[in-house]
Specification:
Blueprint: H1 3-21, H2 44-52, E1 60-61, E2 82-87, H3 89-95, H4 102-107, E3 112-116, E4 124-126, H5 143-146, E5 147-148, E6 151-152, E7 163-171, H6 172-176, E8 184-185, H7 187-197, E9 206-210, H8 220-223, E10 229-230, H9 232-241, E11 246-249, H10 268-276, E12 280-282, H11 287-291, E13 296-301, E14 311-313, E15 317-320
Parallel strand pairs: 7-9, 8-10, 9-11, 11-12
Antiparallel strand pairs: 1-15, 2-3, 4-12, 4-14, 5-6, 7-13, 13-15
Length: 325
């Protein structure tokens, strides 16, 4: 083979590899109107199956509390959690807003309150419109056509259905010990942990990653300080090789920062949401589940139907199921 031919073949191979490795927004196998991605893997049969395997009446609450001063994305300019009273028992007596008079308002006390918050605070799920790629979000939807002044017309959090599926906890923090700052959990870490737990993943699972960061949730500065998270390669193994349906973790933003690939930054967020249509839950409370070594469970959760929003608060629970180790 001539040198020129070798060079041309090599050049063609390089171009082909680069073209294949270029990230693109995913087109849904569930149709051009799909707004929920891999949550389509749930069926009535799959939900009934996992519910039929419940082996305990104990409920594990996997959500954190909301309070003034809680961890937030304030470094990005997003608002913190705010709470205020709109009515108090004594204030109602003084103001008499209902017109019933002081005597009646003293007899029947009344308290009312309100909150203001960023939709990506506390335990919440990221909708598929949260991150995009090259001007598009999951399934090729564009902001020019589908983003109005009152939110997205496609893939808003109101489209997220209630979730019932087999859940698996991968307790990396217990398997490896305290994770270093900004540690990126690898595929090897996940495999090692699953082997120690004697658990196998199934297609359509909800997989929750414990980094141990939830231990510091009440201390925002510690919780936000260079927290560990999952790596892109580990996520690809879960999605492409194991066929998981939904992910979750106990840290602020699922992955670790700064980005792994500064030369061509495509974060885990973009890979999951825009390319693969996989949603995930952040800032979960997994400590009790880990303490009791509950690795398999019925995962049940529902989020607020915030029309057009890119994320929504969620209250997930876990109920132990019959072990299939």
């Amino acid at each position: 083979m001539k040198v020129t031919t070798i060079i041309l073949v090599g050049l063609f191979f390089s171009i082909t590899v680069n073209a294949q490795s270029k990230e693109t927004v995913g087109e849904s196998p569930w149709g051009s109107d799909d707004e929920i991605g891999t949550l389509n893997m749930m069926t009535e049969a799959s939900q009934l199956q996992v519910l039929s395997e419940v082996s305990s009446g104990k409920i594990y609450d996997l959500s954190v509390e909301y309070f003034v001063g809680m961890p937030s994305f304030h470094s990005l300019g997003d608002p913190g959690y705010q709470y205020w009273l709109t009515h108090t028992p004594h204030g109602t007596v003084v103001d008499n807003p209902n017109g019933l008079g002081a005597a009646m308002n003293k007899k029947v006390s009344y308290t009312g309150d309100a909150i203001s918050m960023y939709t990506h605070m506390g335990t919440h799920i990221d909708a598929l419109n949260h991150f995009g790629l090259d001007g598009k979000i999951w399934n090729g939807f564009t902001p020019e056509e589908y983003l109005g002044d009152k939110g997205w017309k496609k893939t808003g959090s109101e489209s997220i259905p209630p979730i019932i599926a087999r859940g698996v906890l991968i307790d990396v923090a217990s398997a490896k010990g305290t994770l270093p700052k900004n540690y990126r959990i690898t595929e090897k870490d996940l495999r090692l942990t699953l082997e120690k737990q004697q658990i196998k993943l199934n297609k359509g699972d909800v997989v929750l990653i414990r980094t141990g960061q939830a231990q510091f949730y009440e201390d925002a500065n510690h919780y936000l300080d260079n927290y560990p998270g999952i790596s892109l390669d580990a996520v690809k193994w879960l999605v492409e090789d194991q066929g998981i349906m939904l992910l979750g973790a106990d840290n602020l933003s699922f992955e670790a920062f700064p980005p792994e690939r500064e030369d061509n930054w495509v974060p885990v967020h973009t890979y999951l949401l825009a390319e693969k249509g996989v949603m995930f839950i952040e800032q979960m409370q997994l400590e009790e589940l880990a303490s009791d070594q509950v690795y398999e469970f019925a995962f049940i959760a529902a989020s607020l139907k915030l029309r057009g929003a890119s994320g929504s608060p969620m209250r997930p629970i876990a109920i132990p199921t019959i072990s299939k180790r």
